[in-house]
Amino acid sequence: MAGWTSASRGTCTGGSGGAQLSRLEPLDFSLGEVPVTFPYRPGLLAFREGPAVLAALEKLATWPDLFLFDAQGIAHPRRLGLAAHLGVLLDCPSIGCAKSRLTGCHDEPGKAMAIGFISILTRGPAGR
Questions:
Q1: Is residue 128 pLDDT above 50, yes or no?
Q2: Same domain, yes or no, for 69 and 121?
Q3: In the beta sheet, which residues pair with residue 6?
Q4: Over the stretch 6-23, which tens digit does the pLDDT of each residue have?
Q5: ∠ CA(102), CA(104), CA(105), 5° rounding?
Q6: Are residues 88 and 115 in the same domain?
Q7: What is the dihedral of CA 19, 30, 58, 53, to 10 degrees?
Q8: Alpha helices, DSSP H, located in the chain
């Protein structure tokens, strides 16, 4: 499994780390830094930060079986956030773990979350 996050200000820096999931043991780590060539546009993060992700991934010695991105996947207004976009480009399973919800609505998970409860994202704007 590989995780990824990035930051940008003039250049976009992406960090990628791989871990052996059964032992949660780090296997590899790399950084990729590229000039920002695409302006910030809400919903189009893959075009701005994707090149840094790819630059970091090129340096990994161990190719992961799964990617975990600090970005949206299919829970995106266009159903193709950075996690889903790069999963398709890399032909590898990917999961988006974003900090905020961009679209849809859901019930709060509640106390049952500790035992594996999931909350389904429904279509439509929040609150409808």
A1: no
A2: no
A3: 14
A4: 666 777 777 777 777 777
A5: 110
A6: no
A7: 90
A8: 45-58, 82-90
